[in-house]
Amino acid sequence: MGVSEVKEAILNGKTTLGIEFGSTRIKAVLIGEDNAPIAAGNHEWENRYENNIWTYSLEDIWGGLQDSYRKMAEDVKEKYGVTLTKVGALGFSAMMHGYMAFNEAGELMVPFRTWRNTITEEASVKLTELFEFNIPQRWSIAHLYQAILNKEEHVKDISYLTTLEGYVHWKLTGKKVLGIGEAAGMLPVDPETKQYSRRMVDAFNELIAPEGFPWKLEEILPEILLAGDNAGCLTEEGARLLDTSGELEAGIPVCPPEGDAGTGMVATNSVAQRTGNVSAGTSVFAMVVLEKALDKVHPEIDMVTTPDGSAVAMVHCNNCTSDLNAWIDLFEEFTQAFGMKVDKNELFGTLYRKALEGDPDCGGLLAYNYFSGEHITGFEEGRPLFVRNPESNFNLANFMRVHLFTALGALKTGLDILLKEENVQIDRMMGHGGLFKTKEVGQRIMAAAVNAPVTVMETAGEGGAWGIALLASYMKNKKDGESLAQFLERDVFAGQEGVTLEPDSTDVEGFNRFVERYTKGLPIEKAAVESLI
């Protein structure tokens, strides 16, 4: 689209807006009639570790939302010379799951507990046994039951339980709803009815009946909607909450809010069966759309759905690039100490590319990127750690390589179960997220980790904010009977080939040797957790 066409689309409200709350960035992306991004705004934020809980405050949430929207609107004005007053549709997404519990007055009763917390192991184990279905620690039902086991005072007063994007959607539209992909991480859904599993709802209600709470589980959960459903409209109050300038009009239709797993699938055109994607940023997860159910229950594998309800096997790891980013910040501080001003993106690219010069197995170096716990390797807490032997080949290339390798260390454990034990077939694995922004580097290392071809599209860096904008566009523009997969193929990804890298055998062998060292060294990480208080 040319500038004049984009300008006309903006003035006529033919654009679509997606906003996603990532772990370190809130991003607003405006797309045009061709579904390509035309403006964006970012707000950096960080979770806090307070009273043994990883959290963000309500002030963080609303201030960040408003700042990202304001910067996107400013981008529109600067590029096209017009003021944004309306869009055709919008949607909200956020980091998956977690726990936000509200009372009858709509007040948040305990601080938001994010996906990063690994404090629900007892509940997770008991519910997995009760449901005969893997319940990860970060899922909302695990947080709820753990709060019950802990005898937390607020539980009896719960009127509504939701996730971050469900909360934002509720406050901006008045609707207590959630997209099925995210809802499946609150409580498992029935693949036939596309609603919460009745069997599990009944089992949970029976389990907690002796507590005498005045609510039943189905009464406090959001309503489930599918991709393409209308999830309400932006209210007058919601418009003022989103756009503090008062220029945005109310009445904009809003799509079902989804988690970053679902928007990642959309952003990589990975919603059809036998397709998969890897999202690598603050956390890392791989998702594969299944042809049939898995044979066994695996604690390392989460079962969720696509935004339109197809079964998905997911391997999720809490930690990915946070420690790597911290090292990049240190190198930036080093350059500043010498009076050099280096562009941050250039610094990332240079150091990432340096990793390709390293030894295949990182020269004997070892690192753990555990800012928080990692359930796949059995850690409730984490300590970032770098270790080497005196004879290790310690140079910059191997240093960068080991931190890129360890970002995918835990992920490989779960993927090996999925691909080798369950014999899941994948025709296409797509990569997206910050790890893939530097051309070839993250893609090559991911291909080594999964020993499979990895494709990255030019839009890989757009991520989930673009994905939720596409879901809003699907709601607004889908044809009768058109599936989400068909819409993506026809209106979004037609003609886009992407770049595919086959795994290099030397890299694969080197990654396998690194993983052996990684596994043997886990007691070192355990000692660090116990010793570094």
TrEMBL record:
Boundaries of every Carbohydrate kinase FGGY N-terminal domain copy: 16-261
Alphabetized GO MF terms: kinase activity
Alphabetical list of InterPro entries matching this protein: ATPase_NBD (IPR043129), FGGY_C (IPR018485), FGGY_Carb_Kinase (IPR050406), FGGY_N (IPR018484)
Keywords: Kinase, Transferase
SUPFAM superfamilies per the UniProt record, alphabetical: Actin-like ATPase domain (SSF53067)
Residues that span the membrane, as ranges: none
One GO-annotated biological process of the protein: carbohydrate metabolic process
Residue stretches making up the Carbohydrate kinase FGGY C-terminal domain: 277-474
PANTHER family: SUGAR KINASE (PTHR43095), XYLULOSE KINASE (PTHR43095:SF5)
Protein family per UniProt: Belongs to the FGGY kinase family.
Protein name: ATPase
